[in-house]
Amino acid sequence: MTPTPPPFRDHGTATGTPGTDPPASLATETDLTDVDFTGLDLRPALRADPRPRTFTRCTFTEANLRGADLGELTIAAAAQFSGAMISVAQAARVCAALGLNVVD
Using CA atoms, how far apart are residues 104 and 100, in angstroms rounded to an integer? Predict the structure, then answer.
């Protein structure tokens, strides 16, 4: 019998070892490296534990970060969330970090 793969991707690294659940890592760790959050809704874990987190080489393609506190957004910090879904308010913060004014 072939084992069923987990319902998430992993990179085979310290926080992305096989059997590690990315949302569970997000809920328990503050320093996350090489974790693939592709397609996941991260809002519940981020709301449950609002501690600041450090993301290094993580993948956020289609990850839902709307309403999450993304910390101080510099250009470099915003780039790490490439591909993520964010709210209009978060997008305005990213633009402000780029020196842009968002008007309606």
Answer: 13
Q: Is 22 left (phi over 0), alpha (psi -120 to 50) or beta?
A: alpha
* pTM score of the predicted model: 0.70
- State which amino acid sits at residue 27: A
| 7-39 core/surface letters (b: 16 or more CB in 10 A; e: else) | ebbbbeeebbeeebebbebbeebeebbbbbbbe
pLDDT in tens, the chain (104 residues): 544 433 334 434 444 444 568 888 888 888 889 999 999 999 888 888 888 888 888 999 999 999 887 777 777 778 888 899 999 888 888 888 888 888 87
